[in-house]
Amino acid sequence: MKGFGFISRDDGQPDAFVHISAVERAGMPSLNEGDRLEFEIEVDRRGKYAAVNLQPISE
């Protein structure tokens, strides 16, 4: 709804910001709480973590 959110990381590192544009580039219409993903982390010039190159994990 907001166009952005945060992804909890399994490695205990800080949550990663994710923008709807990254979700759409991955071919997904949206993300829902509990969805599992593989992704890469980019750090911006402010030191904030962003999830990019998202891929759903099929369980």
Global structural class: mainly beta
Query: Biggest β-sheet, characterized?
Result: 2 strands, antiparallel
Q: What is the straight-line distance between the termini?
A: 25 Å
Q: Any idea what the shape is?
A: globular
The total count of strands amounts to: 4
Strand content: 35-45%
What is the share of helical residues? 10-25%
Order of helices and strands: EEHEE
Regions with pLDDT < 50 over 5+ consecutive residues?
A: none
Q: Please compute the radius of gyration using only Cα atoms.
A: 11 Å
Mean pLDDT: 90
Question: Largest beta sheet: what is the strand line-up?
Answer: 1-2
Describe this entry's structure for a reader.
The chain has one helix at residues 20-25, and strands at residues 4-7, 16-19, 37-43, 49-56. With 59 residues, it is mostly beta strands. Strands 1-2 form a two-stranded antiparallel ribbon. The chain has a two-stranded antiparallel sheet with strand order 3-4. It is globular, with a radius of gyration of 11 Å. The termini are far apart. The model has no long low-confidence stretch (mean pLDDT 90).
